[in-house]
Amino acid sequence: MKISYRISVISLGFAVSATPSLYAANAATLWKKDCASCHGDDGRGDTKAGRKLYINDLTDASLQAKFTDEEAAKSIKFGLKDAKDKVIMNAISGVSDDDVKSLVAYVRSLKK
Ligand code: HEC
Questions:
Q1: What is the pLDDT of residues 77-107, one digit of tens each?
Q2: CA distance 57 to 26
Q3: Rounded to the nearest whole angstrom, what is the distance from the C-alpha of residue 87 to the centroid of ligand 1?
Q4: Could you read off the pLDDT of 11-52 as tens digits, one per residue?
Q5: Ligand 1 lined by 109 (C-beta under 6 Å)
Q6: Is residue 41 part of a domain?
Q7: Could you tell me the residue range of the domain that residue 97 belongs to?
Q8: How far apart are CA 47 and CA 38, in angstroms?
Q9: Could you write out the DSSP letters of every residue in 34-60?
Q10: What is this structure's pTM?
Q11: Does a structural domain hold residue 2?
Q12: Ligand 1 pocket, residue 35 CB under 6 Å
């Protein structure tokens, strides 16, 4: 009895303290799960898939200046195709618009 009481108190404390950074934590989790395979953990795109796609370095400020937040959100939501209509970046699925927004913020935070 005493032990389970203690465990529930600890997990509650964790939930409360984690709330302010929930947004960022969620974006970081999504990034690892849905984006890092191509863009890399750090956004440089130094991955097998990234090199194959001649992916750009998202930490590069001049690249970041080439798209608006709206464009980035659209690319994340609907994916990207090359000139031959081949999908080069998959559309993300199963996430809310808020998740997409927080991913855009995450991408901006990669800028060096
Ligand atoms: C299958 C590989 C792949 C995956 C997975 C992927 N991307 Fe991309 N992404 C690309 C390619 C290729 C481009 C276009 C070339 C470039 O700009 O590097 C791109 C471009 C972008 C851009 C620039 C947008 C623009 O409009 O020019 C952003 C922002 C981006 N990706 C974010 C993400 C996020 C966030 C995720 C995860 C939800 C993700 N990507 C997943 C391959 C991928």
A1: 999 999 999 999 999 998 999 999 999 999 9
A2: 22
A3: 11
A4: 544 444 444 445 567 899 999 999 999 999 999 999 999 999
A5: no
A6: yes
A7: 22-109
A8: 6
A9: IIHHHH-TTSS--SHHHHHTT---TT-
A10: 0.84
A11: no
A12: yes
